Amino acid sequence: MSGLTHEEKIWYWLASTPRLGFKHMVSILEMQISLEEIFADPGSLSMLPEEMRETLKSRADMGRIEEELFSLEKQGIHAVPMPSGEYPPLLREIYRPPLILYVKGSLLRVGELPLGMVGTRLASREGMARMKQIARELADAGVTVVSGMARGIDTACHKGALEAGGVTVAVLGCGVERAYPSENKRLYHAIAETGAVISEFPPGTPPFAGNFPVRNRIISGMSRGILVGEANEASGAHNTARHAYEENRDVFAVPAEKPEQTAELPALLMENGSLSARSAREVLSYYGWAAEEPLQEESPEPGLDFFERELYNLLLKGDMTMQQLADRSGSAAAKVSLTLTKLEVKGLVERLPGNRFGKKI
C-alpha cells in the first residue's frame, strides 16, 4: 500500500479534488485547524463552492482514498503531496507550487544540484549534440538533469544524462502514465527506471497545448538554475527562462557556435544579463562543484581503415553530401559511397534528409 502518512493521505484527498487549486488550499490552511478535523467535517469549508464541498464529502472516506492510491500504484505511479519528504524542496519556494505531483520512479534520486536544460524542438544536429555532451558531463559530475522530454534539445539532454549513468527527471504536460511524444516511449521508461517522470496533472490528462507553459515552471522551480540551448524568442524555452527569473533561479545561455544553430534566445538572454555557459565545466565551476576531466569526443572504432577514418573525420566537422565528401577527399564517388555504407553498418554515420550524411548522434 501507499507509503504516505495519514496526514499526507488527507492532503492528497484535498489536492486531487477537481478544481481545488492553490488559492483554495491557502484559504483552508489559514483556518488553522488540523487536516484531520477538515477530513471529518468537509462541510465546514465555507469558503469553497458548494459543489466542491459536496465532492469532498463524497470522497471523505479513508478506505476510498487508499483504494485510489493503490490503483495508482498498480500503474507504477505514486502520489507525492507537498508535505512529503520526497517533494522537491526548491519547488516549495515558487509562486503557486503544485499541490501534488504524480511520479513514476522516485524523486528521492534527485541529487543536491538539479539543473534544468531546455531548448527548441527544432534544434540543429550540432545544437543537440552539444547539449547532449553538456548533459553527459553534468550528470557524470553528479548533477541531476531536469527537462521536459520534448523532441529536440530536451530529448538530447535526457539521453546525455542517461549515457553518463546519471539521474534525469522528465516533467510532462500530460498525465504521467503517457509517454509523450510517443516516439520517446523507450526514453520514458529509461528515465523512470533510473530517475523520475513527473507531472502535476492527474493521470488521464491529455497533452493539451496550454499544459506545457504551466509545466515549465516546475522544470525551473525544482532546479538551482537552467541552461538554455538553441531556441528562438517565441519558444517554450523562453517561457521557462521567464519562470526561472521570477523564481530567482540562475539562467545560463549556451551561445551558438555555428550559423545553422538557432541563436536568437541565448543571445537575447545574455543581453539581459544571463550567464554564458559554453561547457559543463563552466556551470560546475559557478556552483563550486569539482568537475571531472571533460568527456572526450568518442573516437571511431580502432578497426577503421585509413579512408574510413578520413571520411569520419570530415563528418565530425559537419554534415555533408556524398559529392562534398568526394570533393574534400579527392576520391571517386563510388568509393565514397561504399565507405559510407561501411560506416553506417558500424553505427558511426547516419543518412540524413537531403541526401546528406552526418556523424551518428
From TrEMBL:
<dbReference type="InterPro" id="IPR057666">
    <property type="entry name" value="DrpA_SLOG"/>
</dbReference>
<dbReference type="GO" id="GO:0009294">
    <property type="term" value="P:DNA-mediated transformation"/>
</dbReference>
<comment type="similarity">
    <text>Belongs to the DprA/Smf family.</text>
</comment>
<dbReference type="InterPro" id="IPR036390">
    <property type="entry name" value="WH_DNA-bd_sf"/>
</dbReference>
<feature type="domain" description="DprA winged helix">
    <location>
        <begin position="298"/>
        <end position="355"/>
    </location>
</feature>
<protein>
    <submittedName>
        <fullName>DNA-protecting protein DprA</fullName>
    </submittedName>
</protein>
<dbReference type="InterPro" id="IPR041614">
    <property type="entry name" value="DprA_WH"/>
</dbReference>
<dbReference type="Pfam" id="PF02481">
    <property type="entry name" value="DNA_processg_A"/>
</dbReference>
<dbReference type="InterPro" id="IPR003488">
    <property type="entry name" value="DprA"/>
</dbReference>
<feature type="domain" description="Smf/DprA SLOG">
    <location>
        <begin position="84"/>
        <end position="285"/>
    </location>
</feature>
<dbReference type="Pfam" id="PF17782">
    <property type="entry name" value="WHD_DprA"/>
</dbReference>
<dbReference type="InterPro" id="IPR036388">
    <property type="entry name" value="WH-like_DNA-bd_sf"/>
</dbReference>
